[in-house]
Amino acid sequence: MLTKFETKSNRVKGLSFHPKRPWILASLHSGVIQLWDYRMGTLIDRFDEHEGPVRGVHFHKSQPLFVSGGDDYKIKVWNYKLRRCLFTLLGHLDYIRTVQFHHESPWIVSASDDQTIRIWNWQSRTCISVLTGHNHYVMCASFHLKEDLVVSASLDQTVRVWDIGALKKKNVAPADDLMRLTQMNTDLFGGGDAVVKYVLEGHDRGVNWASFHPTLPLIVSGADDRQVKLWRMNDTKAWEVDTLRGHVNNVSCVMFHARQDIIVSNSEDKSIRIWDMSKRTGVQTFRREQDRFWILAVHPEMNVLAAGHDSGMIVFKLERERPAFAVQGSTLYYIKERYLRTYDFSSQKDNPLISIRRPGATAMNQAPRSLSYNAAENAVLLCSDIDGGSYELYAIPKDTSGKGESTPDSKRGLGAAAVFVARNRFAVLDRNHNQVLIKDMKNDVTKKCNLPVSTSDIFYAGTGNLLCRSEDKIVLFDVQQRSTLGELTTPFVKYVIWSSNMENVALLSKHAIIIANKRLVHTCTVHETIRVKSGAWDESGVFIYTTLNHIKYCLPNGDSGIVRTLDVPIYMTRVSKETLFCLDRDGKNRVIQIDPTEYLFKLALFQRRFDQVLQMIQNMKLCGQSIIAYLQQKGFPEVALHFVKDEHTRFSLAIECGNTAVAVASAKEIDDKDCWHRLGVEALRQGNYEIVEYAYQKTKNFERLSFLYLITGNTEKLSKMLKIAEMRSDVMGRFHNALYLGDVEERVRILEESGQLPLAYATATAHGLTETAERLQELLDGALPSIPPSEKCFLLMPPKPIVQDSNWPLLTVSKGFFEGAFGEPSAVDLEEEEATEGAWGEELDLLVAENGDGEKDDVVLVEREDDDEEGWEMEDLELPAELAVADVVPTGSTYFAVPPPGIPTSQIWVQTSSLAGEHAAAGAFDTAMRLLNRQLGIKNFEPLKSVFLELHLASHTSLPTMVSLPALPLALLRGWSETASPNTRGLPALIYKLSSLEETLRVAYKTTTEGKFTEALRLFINILHTIPVVVVDSRREVDEVKELLGIAKDYVLALRIELKRKDPSLKDEPVRQAELAAYFTHCNLQATHLKLSLQSAMSLCFKLKNYGTAATFARRLLELNLSPQVATRARQVLQVGEKNPKDEMQLNYDARNPFVVCGSTFTPIYRGSRDISCPYCQARFVAETMGSLCSICDLAVVGSNGSGLLCSSTQVR
């Protein structure tokens, strides 16, 4: 049995496979129906409207429906897409045992303990027939797949076959009045449309199950007499064929396999048995220790079965479906139906070579597991699981006729695995002695080699070399030199696939692919969520692999993606350009066409073969958000722009990578105010004033436009902005522009027109405009503002900028490979275009003057004549042509391309690490908190705030630059050296180390010895708060960190107990003080501190006249190394206690019953009592504290889940 999926739940009473999807329904004794994806191993949904156990459940063949029947006498029809019950069918008077949809008609058949079988029409939601005749509980009923028959089994010891042909005709033909009368009689008395065809009697006790064969006229039944019976039927009669004996308890369920000539049965004897239908003998038995089996389900199309038992269900296969194969050149050698066959990839011809039948083989799982081919000797090695592991060596005759009729003799032997390692040598793994036996073609041992690791399998690794697989690593072993050439830590490897040149190897585990070179130097790892099935190397060096439902690729740099989806799993044998060769689960060769464009494009990009990249872009259809995101991630935004057709996406991408030329083109198409604003911000960041000016003009942002002219010193255009503001009746705009220009007379005029005469007078007087001041004085009629006299008075004029009328000086870079290659409006293209087109083309509030040739010339601001319209309309305002926007791109042979920003070091830390300390050092506090929550159940992060900040600040520094520029941030790397590669980013330098924590521990010990308990408690809590972010390098240090965590936890608990005992609130409670002192002695302390705690508890109990308890402490004290004075006192107390072993006070303390102390209530939790623990510090608590914050570490929630402390990369595979 190959278990594919297993669940833990209440007893499973009903099972049903979905005919197409990898789903299974399980109905439970608790009343819940579960819908599982057995391929992914996830619970999709649950349905719980039944009251009481649900015994029957079944999927519809084509509709998104399933039906269930339970002990509440109800049949419910559900829609799993809508996730609800559609309707309920009522009619049965007792428990419903099974329900099933008809494969064609809209019918449901149900069997019940009310001794009837009912057939329902689920479309009209009515009962259309009641089958009566059984005189005990009807345990099951099911339709025949092809004929109009129903089979039922009952505890009346019979199996009945019912003919429902009349019911079929009745529901097809229109019913007349007579038929309606018949229907009425049927409803009252039962029968009529369905008649009993056969009654099968032969079981001695009640029959629990009966089912039809899908194609043959056979029935199989299982009963409480522990027998499985096989029945045959024809048109006139049915008879018993044989009885299968072997079960030792009631047979619960029995079925025919959908694709093989076998019968599967399960029983309350906790076993599943497989029977050969032709030989009628038992083939295999699978047992469980505790659980009785109740139900079976067979997938209608696949080799998958399911069985429900007392504590859940299992989905399993009876034998491996993966064919054994090997590829040699352009030929595939594989095993199919006991034949060794060849398949030529070029001609696609399939030929049988030899027969490998094994006479007398009856057990399952005897097909070869692996195949190794030797081209020099034209021989094959087949390995199987027979006899605990064996191999067969076949020499293929040269004169094979192509019919595969010859059966050459084979040389056999025992061994867990066997592979060829040289021209005439093969290696056999002896797992018992952990050695490899080198044998010649005569099957004689020539050499024995002890293996360097405990090896469970071996793989070919070139002439004379082997790959040895252990549980957590792969070792490259030289058989000739008997030496280890390489080693790689991996998950459990199942398959090894070498590239054609033997330079690279792919190691396939259940959920991962590890790529390495021929010396086992790790290249990359790809993790999958579902099973990896097979793989092959593409001619270009890309590894193509399959999962259960996808064909995928893996590039040498670790990038992976999907090539196409699969309907059924396949086993890949070869990839050649756009053709993929594979074997399916039936051993048939299939050819699948794939599109390699995506991975070849990424490979060319990775190998920096830009000519191929350009050719592929121009000749092939590459599209999709994934390609765009990939190009952005890899630093090729100019290539990504080629794939984007949507203008909004193009604009956002251009802004992100700083390509203002493309951004301008897209903004013109979109013509959205927000886009122009974002373009202005980006252009201002780059110092491109012309684009900023254009963006401000398009958004009519006159205030920003005026300020732009101010900082660039363009006073002429400021003067024009002043006139525009005047035409717009924008008083504040006029005043600001006059202020920017230093035009005092204009400011006085604006204030006067606005009615602000005192301000106008003050402005004129302060700036020496005597005539204007006198005129305003007359208007004010003596109400003059007081102006303080000042001798040193000067006009407020705006400063002149250093750089005027030109963009910032930018870096000159060489032309990129892709620049201008795609016909995009790049910087160079724009330069040529603008040489003839002028500044910025058509805009809102600016007119484009045309020259004599009709071509666009300079952009000018124009004024509108006075008319009735107000506001933003200014097209008629005529101004001189001097107000021209300069050409955007300066002429010349050089241009600026914005260098793409690199990936920040802190981001690399986050991407490559799973340790919370390194995430905190990178500043990714949110991911660090998520990691700690998942690993240690930490919810309260307030105590860790300062720790996170210190980690982050200590792993970064800054270098001073020029005076006017900010400092340059720099990440500090752990273990950096001058010889380190500049392209390799190390991990962050951390201030918290194991050595510093050990030093803190020594100080805390000393402080505890000195009796400074409050200070010692602070130090131990500090250790607890630091350990979550500590990072160490080796497994040994991981163990030390965990030991340190345990010590800190024990001391925090002990010190809290002692401080609680000394609390003034307990001054009048001597009993509680004595209890706490006693608990203090049971904490895991150093010998020095244990002596002090025992002395304290002994003295306190002696004073309370609890001589028996005091003697207990004295006895424990005398077992330690004591000073003479303390030893004498302890002996005296012991003598008193032995003479008078009584306690005056009753304490909640039993020294003879082992216990731990609750970290919250400070009470004992004796062995056998229910308790819960903190997922981080493992402190123990009484069950009532579930969900509260741990009072020891003050970080995690008591009783929550956590995967465990992760403080080293060696813990992460």
Automatic annotation (TrEMBL):
Q: Does the keyword Protease apply?
A: no
The segment(s) forming the COPA/B second beta-propeller domain are: 339-584
Any Pfam family: WD40
UniProt keywords (A-Z) are: Cytoplasm, ER-Golgi transport, Golgi apparatus, Membrane, Protein transport, Repeat, Transport, WD repeat
List, for all copies, the residue spans of the domain called COPA/B TPR: 611-767
Where does the record place its WD repeats?
5-46, 47-88, 89-130, 131-164, 200-241, 244-285
Residue ranges of domain Coatomer alpha subunit C-terminal in the record:
815-1213
Q: How does it sit in the membrane?
A: Peripheral membrane protein
Subcellular location as annotated: Cytoplasm; Golgi apparatus membrane; Cytoplasmic vesicle, COPI-coated vesicle membrane
Oligomeric and partner information: Oligomeric complex that consists of at least the alpha, beta, beta', gamma, delta, epsilon and zeta subunits.
Task: Tell me, in a sentence or two, what this protein's role is.
Answer: The coatomer is a cytosolic protein complex that binds to dilysine motifs and reversibly associates with Golgi non-clathrin-coated vesicles, which further mediate biosynthetic protein transport from the ER, via the Golgi up to the trans Golgi network. Coatomer complex is required for budding from Golgi membranes, and is essential for the retrograde Golgi-to-ER transport of dilysine-tagged proteins.
> What name goes with this protein?
Coatomer subunit alpha
Organism (species): Sphagnum troendelagicum
